[in-house]
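Lab channel / #folding
Pinned by the channel admin:
"Please post every new chain as: sequence first, then the structure tokens as a reply. Keep commentary short and put observations after the output so the thread stays searchable."

First post following the new format, from NK:
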Amino acid sequence: MKARASIEEKYGKDLLNLSKKSFGQAELNTTKKALEVFKQKVENVGQAHLQLAQSIKDEAKRLEDFREKQKESRKKIEHTMEQLHKLKTSQYKKTMDSKKTYEQKCRDKDEAEQALNRNANTGNLKQQEKLTAKSSQAKSLAEEADRNYQQNVSLLEKIRENWLMEHTKACEFFEIQECERVQYTRNTLWTHVNLLSQQCVTSDEMYEEVRKSLEGCSISKDIEYFIDLRKTGDTPPAQVPYENFYSLQRNPGSGRSQVSGGIRREAPLPPATQNDAAYSMLDGNYSLAQY
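Reply from TO:
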């Protein structure tokens, strides 16, 4: 989720930087308005992605806090179970040692009794008393080892029962904690994809406004607006007339063309004589002098 938040944040910042760049400055009227709407909506989408990134970060932080809380609770249970396990292990070792001692003392007692029985019919009274004392001491030590062994077994059983009870509680606690973890993770992911879906809806709404602004674009209105903005007048420039060089020389006063009101006027050519050059008219606006 943190990685997705970083991606959304970078994408949002890139869109904001993109929306600040200049474009479409030469456009006019409805097209310019549509481009301005497009630019504004790109900025809005960028802001929405930044908000989405922050929302994802908040969700990730809540999930992390939840996991830390569970971790602390789990540590307490694990510490208790670790102490009980060490106690049980220690008592088990102590019990096994006492068992070995008990078994050895029983064997010593049996050997002392057997030695006493073997020497019961001998006439050595001093040896008999010595074996009797040794048998009595071995019996006493065996009884003491037996009591110690039984006490250790009893204590081990109490520790085992306590360990088993705490172990059962720990397992139940961990099961409940795991159920809570799975449910919280599921709900967090559900919220996460809802945020992503909402972002898609928000972006589509922004782009729909752009589409509406583009539908309002009118080519004919933009052309008319451009003409009204850039036009220089209602009438075109007047036509530049053709002026015959030779006609102007012969009739400097009347042969010069005059332009009035955009209409060209020319003086008629003089009639040809024997002493004058001969003119041949090619058309109504052009003449060629021949000598």
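NK: Helices lie at 2-19, 29-118, 125-215, 219-230, 245-250.
TO: also worth noting, The mean pLDDT is 80.
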